[in-house]
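[09:14] KT: can someone run the structure on this one? pasting the chain below
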Amino acid sequence: MAARARVTDEASEDDAGGARVAVRGRYAAVLAGIALFGLAVAGYLTWVKLTGGTVVCGPLGGCETVQTSEYSTILGIPVSAYGMGYTAVVLVLALGWWRTGDRRLLLGTYVLGLLGTLFVAYLVYLQVAVIGAVCVWCMAFDASVVVGFLAAIVTYRRTATA
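[09:31] RB: done, structure tokens below
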């Protein structure tokens, strides 16, 4: 009888482990999706900047003004290239957390999200108050950073026992 109970306990532990991975998978998919969106936007902006092209901004305008401003590079590297690096690291951390369950990786996503949110707040300030133009693509990337940070907060809190 004791052997039967032990097998049942092991099976329920396996079921719980599978459920934890499934929960992590859902949250990781959200974090990864947001990061992939940001990576695509930053990739487009970097490609345009490096090829000397013109950003397709639509009727709103402002993208080219921001993209050609003195604030569009840091140490000669397009700001959007830093954004690509940022989102690539967030993506790796989120997928690593999903695969391993190591909450330090999720915490890294949270910390990067906080730092990223502070930096994009500065970039929005530059667009509005200094450059005097707003780039819709840049704002889309900025939104992805903030939404990713908020998703990391929710994920960290809701998966504390998962």
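[09:33] KT: thanks! The beta strands are 73-74, 77-78.
[09:34] RB: yep, looked fine to me
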